[in-house]
Amino acid sequence: MNKQMMVWKGHHPLAILMDFGRARPSRREIQSRTVALQLQEWASEHCSAPYRAPGLWNCPSHAFIDGRTDIWSLGSTLYAIMEGVLTGPSPPYPEALHKFITWMLQSQSMIHPRIDDVIIHVDKLIAKFSIRSLLIIPQKSHAPPILE
User: What pTM was computed for the model?
Assistant: First the structure.
């Protein structure tokens, strides 16, 4: 496990998100520059920089922070896994998965997708592709029984 990246890679193409020790409620109303700077400082100490949502780098003085910042982080993590940044060389993934991840990485925080929308899209991806084709597990893998 790479502590900074919070992803563990097994012996097959399976990445497992690990360290959720800094998880906390994500809804927060920002009503002053002081509170915005406190949030930025907290994020710099507790959020891995490559996966930190843009709104946590330069938080406006009047904003509403919610779970959409987590969607950005999830999209960034999935992108890094898909591109082999975290797990080494990766096999090609379906174009629909690339589009899904790009959709999660909207640049403006107020148009980041919400978790309910992400779940709907995941269900559609699973219906379109078998879970095996998304995970790209070889026929004779040593995958955990749940994936076999």
Answer: 0.68
